[in-house]
Design a protein that fits this description.
The structure is a homodimer. Helices cover about 40% and strands about 20% of the residues of chain A. Chain A contains 15 helices and 16 strands. Chains A and B meet through helix 13 and helix 14 of A and helix 13 and helix 14 of B.
Chain lengths: ~375, ~375
């Protein structure tokens, strides 16, 4: 498993300060990973993503499998070269997307048959094909092909689904041939059932993979439930491997995850709300469409030192949004990613200095979480 | 007229190599000016526009008057600060847009009444209000409020229209109070009628303004007619003032304009076709949607050294366009503007080295104009 190494540098309570090293570079953890679904972080040049401090981004296997097709990306020299991003990339397995298709997909032990969102054509993704696609893409971290059970789901659904995910992980591991270049992470499932989570964790940890993800959380369950499930999930995972909480991106979920020992996070939220005119700031979210910003010449966040806040006013950003200008999405996406990436840098510093809980409380108070 | 100076450096035939100095910097001519209609060059950060070599951009008075409103821009510290662009800006007068509204506008001697494209509200623009708006915006070069007569238009329409444009110019000059900071250019009209063009030129040149534009060309007339009208128009203008051919942007029109002694050009074409997936290259236009580029890993233009051609393949750009990703518009806009701006730099060098005609012929052959 020469493709990835993890060094645990420091702990502050359960919060961990670590470092992941891959063939394309080193990642300081805890880390927030911007999502670049279709081989682009939406509305941003890769240099802007790197300049705001992102050390790793995500690519989506499902989307790239359907368009442009993984063989084209492979022929281009891999996803890094195709999209002009030289730092690490993590690819998901496509499982989450194909399972989300509802009536448009059919699950068998072999994998999932589904219809393309582009032209309705029939396709199949399973453990072997997902790994094949991810090896074509050449990501630094590949994710196992799994089923993320919906919420709510009863035990009768979750148990066989979790067991199949474990069987699929064994097949993913067998299909994983490029072991010196690419790492494979297993995914724990088990819904909101502690014994199923424990069973899932035990079985996947037995496979001795470079890292582990916690799947099936932040899928609609109340925050308190998410936190209590996460509490025991993390304890089932080994200390010497990175832990990834999939699809989590609101600031409070990042803090709650870090507090419980999670190292990696990703979410489309910051770039998606940016395209709808919402900025994340240290004092909470700001809706740039609001008429009160018409003559507001302050930056989005007066405490932020990002490119956007150094150069543009709320009045200008509101004007761009109202005018339907792409620059609105470009600038708000950059600001929001900077906000989460730099918040994560602050979190890392706070762990190094044994004051994570204090920083979390200060952040929550300012952001407005404590008032809710 | 301390707001602008023009230095004629060199001539090669009628082609001129010059330099315009404004309060926000110096512009090497002949120059192509990217258009930033609504206080943004669409899909580009201002740094990217500057980095590709653009020394001046355009703003549109009509659009900024309606949204966000010139008083807001003024309160922001002017258009340069509002949009984060520190180099020179030229603003048009809004005349072209309000006259284009057809039944939605009413022309009187005072000015033009029109309906807003945003909410249908009634507004008025005339010589005084156009200059007031442009002084609020704080552009380096303001354009006179004129009527650009349509093509075709008979003499009975064009003559009184041209005479009114001249009367309006006198009123623009009277309204122009910020003379140490902002320059005012007059606009020659007269349709395709030589005597009217001569009369227009004589009257506007009498007003001794910092520069002159040729309006009412490239409005649908055949290229040969445009060229023959341009032939005599330029001769009516003084040698010691910059000459601006408004709204012209295909490469051949730039060359034909320079060949006849024009110094300044602008057009939305490069950024507009970019958003439709068309790239300008040294071998002619390239439609990135074409299926033949699916596995084409060459840059858009192998002879181009722009950021886009150094870092991305046709296959990637096609993928972005097909996926509806904003990065497609961002990258193609940057490439196309680089193409015209760097072609203009090549034109300047060719004039300096007395080989403009040869460069023009070489460019035309390669671009494919000579085959048509």
């Amino acid at each position: 498993m020469g493709s990835l190494s993890f060094k645990l540098i420091k702990k502050d309570g359960k919060a961990r300060r670590g470092e992941i090293t891959t063939k394309h570079g080193t990642i300081q953890t805890p880390v927030f990973m911007p999502v670049g679904t279709a081989a682009t972080v939406k509305a941003m040049k890769p240099e802007a993503v790197a300049n705001l401090g992102a050390e790793i981004i995500l690519g989506n296997t499902y989307h790239l499998f359907l368009r442009p097709g993984s063989k084209i990306v492979k022929q281009a020299g891999g996803l890094h070269k195709f999209m002009n991003w030289s730092r690490p990339i993590l690819t998901d397995s496509g499982g989450f997307q194909v399972f989300s298709l509802g009536d448009l997909r059919k699950i068998t032990e072999e994998g999932v048959q589904f219809a393309s969102f582009i032209d309705g054509s029939r396709h199949m993704l399973g453990p072997e094909s997902s790994i094949e696609v991810q090896q074509d893409l050449g990501s630094d971290i590949m994710m196992a092909f799994d089923e993320c059970a919906p919420y709510p789901a009863d035990r009768e659904y979750v148990k066989p689904s979790m067991e199949r995910t474990t069987r699929w992980l064994a097949r993913c591991k067998d299909a994983w041939t490029n072991r010196e270049e690419q790492a494979l992470f297993g995914i724990m499932q088990g819904g909101m059932y502690q014994d199923l989570r424990e069973k899932s964790a035990r079985d996947i940890v037995d496979m001795d993979l470079p890292g582990y993800a916690i799947g099936g959380l932040s899928v609609g369950e109340p925050k308190e439930l998410m936190c209590s499930v996460l509490d025991y999930c993390v304890d089932y995972l080994p200390e010497n491997k990175p832990r990834y909480l999939m699809g989590v991106g609101t600031p409070d979920y990042l803090f709650e995850g870090v507090a419980r020992g999670v190292d990696m996070f990703d979410c489309v939220l910051p770039t998606r709300i940016a395209r709808h005119g919402v900025a994340m700031t240290s004092h909470g979210n700001l809706n740039i469409k609001n008429a009160k910003f018409e003559r507001d010449f302050e930056p989005l966040d007066p405490e932020c030192n990002c490119y956007v806040c150094r150069n543009y006013s709320r009045a200008y950003l509101r004007h761009l949004f109202k005018s339907g200008e792409m620059l609105s999405s470009m600038l708000l996406s950059e600001h929001n990613l900077h906000f989460l990436v730099s918040t994560m840098a602050n979190i890392r510093r706070s762990i190094e200095e044994d004051r994570f809980e204090q920083y979390k409380e200060d952040f929550y108070r300012k952001y407005g979480y404590l008032e809710k």
